[in-house]
Amino acid sequence: MEGIGKYKIDVKVSADKLEAEVLLRVDEQDIDEIVILETDVYKALQASNVKYGILDDVVRDICTLPAKYANARVKVAQGVAPVAGTDGTIEYPYLASINEGEGPKELEDGRVDFYNVTTIPNVAKGQLLARKIPASQGEPGTAVTGEPIAPKAGKEINMKPGKNVVLNQERTMLYAAIDGQVSFTEQSKMNVFPVFEVNGDVDFGVGNIDFVGTVVIRGNVLNGFRVKSSGDIRVLGSVEGAELYAEGSIEIKSGIVAQDKGCIVAGKDVRTSFIQNANVTAGNQVIVSQSIMFSTVRAGKQIICKGSKGFIIGGVLQAGEKIVARVFGNSSATPTILEVGVKPELRQELASIQKELQNVYENLRKTDQGLGVMNQILQVSKELPADKRLMQIKLTNTRLVLEKESKELEARRNDIELELKGEGPAAIEAYHVMYPGIKMTFGKLVHFIKHEYARTRFIVLDGEISTATLI
């Protein structure tokens, strides 16, 4: 039996080839008279190369009640979407017994357990520190035309070994090469450093410390002394007007009272209970449980002061991403400067690297030009004079040095560009109140706070500083 009446079956395959639709074109006067055979629909689908995921029940319905589906698009085939792969990750088995959050742990009675805010775990030689979980390729899908649809593969991740650690041959496992304590330094490199312990204060009886490893001080660091570490520094007491430099993180249990002397500089994080009249810089975060007063504080990413008091008064605070506190300023409108959303030191370094690269490229060009002349002489005379041969050796060595230098500069340039590209929208968040007297800067935008704001987030929208209520 053939179909009856005037109609046309149009087939449309979606751009992603995951769906196919039919459009039954019928003149209005013929709608009640047409008869459509299932074979006609399948032939139309076949003509459009639709062969997978055909919805037979829909085809049956169209042929049973053609008037219902006339002049309307109906999905008649459904493919299988590909499943995207998962990104690679790194697991840290040595942290299994450590509960380490982003900030100080709040106890049941509301107090803050700052003593355990950063645990520097001991590890043994040969202990597994990190395990790479590779990215998955995902699962392919199937188009309605029967073709496989390739999935989006997950993004791979690389282990970043530092000092005193070893990778297995497959570069999927990282082990401790010595007994010591784990420290993360620049660009998230994982290290194991030996430990230097001071059982009391850093004073005239101990002197300055410069140690290739992690330093643990069970007392205070007094005025005028200096502690340098290629790992972490942990001070169980307080720090006065001293200088502390760590390539990893710095933790100070009892706070910093610097009297506008000395400085605290960490490649990664600085964690402490309070900062007063001090100069503090961290490559990543500055996390303070109680207060920051009349200090200069810089963080590559965030400054967080959200403890039971959590107030920031006076001074200059600069963060690449966010500054957070319960209270900003006071009722006396003490001037306080907050700057977010820019990383001037990175941008300055990038400009410097670009300039250095131009010089290196120019020197490479001149070196290659000189080597080209030597090659021309060699082709003509078949042998270089002694002075020319010596010059060729010098030029060749110079080229090797310049090539190595250019690769190092290019790698650092790429890292900086990636970090600057990854900058998210900057914010300043007051979880209780922000008082007048605050000057906030988002890049080139400046805003002065002239009245109180309660539970407010400040962000940039459409080129202006805007506010939103914190829930």
Explain how this protein is built:
It is a single chain. Strands 15, 17, 19, 21, 22, 24, 26, 28, 29, 31, 33, 36 and 37 form a 13-stranded mixed β-sheet that branches. Strands 16-18-20-23-25-27-30-32-34-35 form a ten-stranded mixed β-sheet, with no helix packed on it. Strands 4-8-12-11 form a four-stranded antiparallel β-sheet, with no helix packed on it. It has five helices and 37 strands. The longest helix is centred in the last third of the chain and has 38 residues, at 344-381. Mean pLDDT is 86; it is low at 99-104 and 112-120. Helix 4 packs antiparallel against helix 5. Among the domains are: 7-78, no CATH class; 89-137 and 152-182, no CATH class; 344-414. It is an alpha/beta fold. A hairpin with a 2-residue loop joins strand 36 and strand 37 (464-469).
How do the helices and strands line up, and which of them pair or pack?
Blueprint: E1 7-13, E2 19-26, H1 38-47, H2 56-64, H3 66-69, E3 73-78, E4 89-91, E5 105-106, E6 112-113, E7 122-123, E8 128-133, E9 141-142, E10 148-149, E11 165-167, E12 173-176, E13 180-185, E14 189-193, E15 195-198, E16 209-211, E17 214-217, E18 226-229, E19 233-235, E20 243-246, E21 250-252, E22 256-257, E23 263-266, E24 270-276, E25 279-282, E26 285-293, E27 296-299, E28 302-305, E29 311-313, E30 316-319, E31 322-328, E32 336-340, H4 344-381, H5 386-421, E33 427-434, E34 438-442, E35 445-448, E36 453-461, E37 464-469
Parallel strand pairs: 15-17, 16-18, 17-19, 18-20, 19-21, 20-23, 21-24, 22-24, 23-25, 24-26, 25-27, 26-28, 26-29, 27-30, 28-31, 29-31, 30-32, 31-33, 32-34
Antiparallel strand pairs: 1-2, 2-3, 4-8, 5-6, 7-13, 8-12, 9-10, 11-12, 13-14, 33-36, 34-35, 36-37
